[in-house]
Automatic annotation (TrEMBL):
Organism domain of life: Bacteria
Secretion signal, residue range per the UniProt entry: 1-24
Keywords in alphabetical order: Signal
Official protein name in the record: Peptidase inhibitor family I36
Organism: Jiangella alba
Amino acid sequence: MKRAISALAFVLFLLLGLSVPAAAGGESDPTVGGDERVSVMAGPCGSSYRHIGHYPIGSSPVLGYMDVYWSSTAKRNCLVVNHSSATYGKRLYTEASIWPYGSSAPSCPSSVGCDGGMYGYYAGPVYTPAGVDMSNRCVNIKGVVDWTTATRTRIHCG
Protein backbone atom coordinates (compact mmCIF):
# COMPACT_ATOMS: atom_id res chain seq x y z
CA MET A 1 0.00 0.00 0.00
CA LYS A 2 2.81 2.41 0.88
CA ARG A 3 4.45 1.63 -2.45
CA ALA A 4 1.26 2.50 -4.35
CA ILE A 5 0.90 5.79 -2.47
CA SER A 6 4.57 6.64 -3.12
CA ALA A 7 4.16 5.89 -6.82
CA LEU A 8 1.01 8.02 -6.99
CA ALA A 9 2.75 10.91 -5.20
CA PHE A 10 5.69 10.67 -7.61
CA VAL A 11 3.38 10.76 -10.65
CA LEU A 12 1.52 13.78 -9.25
CA PHE A 13 4.82 15.54 -8.55
CA LEU A 14 5.93 14.95 -12.13
CA LEU A 15 2.63 16.12 -13.56
CA LEU A 16 2.64 19.32 -11.51
CA GLY A 17 6.28 19.98 -12.31
CA LEU A 18 5.70 19.52 -16.04
CA SER A 19 3.23 22.36 -16.34
CA VAL A 20 6.01 24.95 -16.79
CA PRO A 21 6.61 25.88 -20.46
CA ALA A 22 10.15 25.37 -21.68
CA ALA A 23 10.20 24.65 -25.39
CA ALA A 24 12.23 27.06 -27.50
CA GLY A 25 10.52 29.73 -29.51
CA GLY A 26 8.13 31.22 -26.98
CA GLU A 27 5.38 28.64 -27.04
CA SER A 28 2.01 30.24 -26.43
CA ASP A 29 0.59 27.07 -24.87
CA PRO A 30 1.96 26.08 -21.44
CA THR A 31 1.29 22.36 -21.89
CA VAL A 32 4.29 20.29 -22.81
CA GLY A 33 4.38 16.72 -24.01
CA GLY A 34 6.58 14.06 -25.49
CA ASP A 35 10.33 14.64 -25.70
CA GLU A 36 9.96 18.24 -24.52
CA ARG A 37 9.28 16.96 -20.99
CA VAL A 38 12.96 16.16 -20.55
CA SER A 39 13.92 19.80 -21.16
CA VAL A 40 11.27 20.96 -18.70
CA MET A 41 12.77 18.91 -15.91
CA ALA A 42 16.22 20.23 -16.82
CA GLY A 43 15.02 23.85 -16.82
CA PRO A 44 14.18 26.13 -19.71
CA CYS A 45 17.78 26.49 -20.95
CA GLY A 46 19.08 22.96 -20.40
CA SER A 47 20.48 20.79 -17.67
CA SER A 48 23.82 22.59 -17.30
CA TYR A 49 22.25 26.03 -16.76
CA ARG A 50 21.55 27.50 -13.33
CA HIS A 51 19.36 30.50 -12.52
CA ILE A 52 21.41 33.63 -11.69
CA GLY A 53 19.10 36.63 -12.11
CA HIS A 54 15.44 37.70 -11.96
CA TYR A 55 14.43 41.19 -13.15
CA PRO A 56 10.95 42.77 -13.44
CA ILE A 57 9.47 44.26 -16.59
CA GLY A 58 7.22 47.20 -15.77
CA SER A 59 5.87 48.29 -12.42
CA SER A 60 2.37 48.70 -11.02
CA PRO A 61 1.70 46.13 -12.35
CA VAL A 62 4.78 44.07 -13.17
CA LEU A 63 4.03 42.61 -16.61
CA GLY A 64 6.75 39.98 -16.67
CA TYR A 65 10.22 38.93 -15.59
CA MET A 66 13.58 38.43 -17.26
CA ASP A 67 15.24 35.28 -15.93
CA VAL A 68 18.96 34.90 -16.64
CA TYR A 69 20.81 31.56 -16.54
CA TRP A 70 24.50 30.61 -16.73
CA SER A 71 26.25 27.40 -17.81
CA SER A 72 29.85 26.97 -16.70
CA THR A 73 30.00 23.97 -19.02
CA ALA A 74 28.84 25.79 -22.18
CA LYS A 75 30.32 29.14 -21.03
CA ARG A 76 27.12 30.82 -22.22
CA ASN A 77 24.24 32.79 -20.75
CA CYS A 78 20.57 32.21 -21.47
CA LEU A 79 17.48 34.40 -21.07
CA VAL A 80 13.77 33.63 -20.78
CA VAL A 81 11.11 36.35 -20.49
CA ASN A 82 8.09 35.08 -18.56
CA HIS A 83 4.71 36.75 -18.25
CA SER A 84 3.62 37.63 -14.72
CA SER A 85 0.19 36.95 -13.29
CA ALA A 86 -1.06 40.26 -14.74
CA THR A 87 -0.36 39.11 -18.32
CA TYR A 88 -0.18 35.31 -18.00
CA GLY A 89 -2.08 33.63 -20.81
CA LYS A 90 -2.72 36.85 -22.73
CA ARG A 91 -1.26 36.92 -26.24
CA LEU A 92 0.86 40.05 -26.17
CA TYR A 93 4.04 41.11 -27.91
CA THR A 94 6.81 39.42 -25.91
CA GLU A 95 10.53 39.57 -26.60
CA ALA A 96 13.72 38.18 -25.06
CA SER A 97 17.12 39.51 -26.21
CA ILE A 98 20.60 38.72 -24.86
CA TRP A 99 24.04 39.72 -26.09
CA PRO A 100 27.60 40.19 -24.80
CA TYR A 101 28.38 43.64 -23.41
CA GLY A 102 30.32 45.62 -26.02
CA SER A 103 28.56 43.90 -28.95
CA SER A 104 25.57 45.08 -30.94
CA ALA A 105 22.11 44.03 -29.81
CA PRO A 106 20.56 41.26 -31.92
CA SER A 107 17.72 42.17 -34.27
CA CYS A 108 14.39 40.55 -33.61
CA PRO A 109 12.48 38.46 -34.15
CA SER A 110 14.64 35.79 -35.72
CA SER A 111 18.34 36.27 -35.05
CA VAL A 112 20.66 34.50 -32.63
CA GLY A 113 20.02 35.92 -29.19
CA CYS A 114 16.49 37.18 -29.81
CA ASP A 115 12.99 35.73 -29.84
CA GLY A 116 9.94 37.92 -30.24
CA GLY A 117 6.32 37.45 -31.17
CA MET A 118 2.74 37.34 -29.94
CA TYR A 119 3.08 34.97 -26.99
CA GLY A 120 0.86 34.31 -24.01
CA TYR A 121 3.35 32.85 -21.57
CA TYR A 122 7.03 33.47 -22.41
CA ALA A 123 9.67 34.26 -25.04
CA GLY A 124 12.95 32.35 -25.36
CA PRO A 125 15.04 30.68 -24.29
CA VAL A 126 17.70 32.67 -26.13
CA TYR A 127 21.47 32.33 -25.73
CA THR A 128 24.62 34.39 -26.09
CA PRO A 129 26.41 33.48 -29.35
CA ALA A 130 28.03 30.05 -29.61
CA GLY A 131 31.79 30.22 -29.56
CA VAL A 132 31.86 33.37 -27.41
CA ASP A 133 33.25 32.45 -23.98
CA MET A 134 31.21 34.52 -21.52
CA SER A 135 33.30 33.46 -18.48
CA ASN A 136 34.90 36.88 -18.04
CA ARG A 137 32.41 39.03 -19.94
CA CYS A 138 29.34 40.99 -18.97
CA VAL A 139 25.97 40.40 -20.57
CA ASN A 140 23.17 42.74 -21.68
CA ILE A 141 19.52 41.70 -21.62
CA LYS A 142 16.25 43.17 -22.85
CA GLY A 143 12.74 41.98 -22.12
CA VAL A 144 9.47 43.21 -23.57
CA VAL A 145 5.91 42.34 -22.53
CA ASP A 146 3.00 44.22 -24.09
CA TRP A 147 5.44 46.75 -25.57
CA THR A 148 6.78 47.65 -22.10
CA THR A 149 10.57 47.29 -22.21
CA ALA A 150 13.16 46.62 -19.53
CA THR A 151 16.90 46.59 -20.23
CA ARG A 152 19.84 45.68 -18.02
CA THR A 153 23.36 46.33 -19.26
CA ARG A 154 26.74 45.12 -18.09
CA ILE A 155 25.41 42.53 -15.63
CA HIS A 156 26.65 39.14 -14.45
CA CYS A 157 30.25 39.93 -15.32
CA GLY A 158 32.50 36.82 -15.09
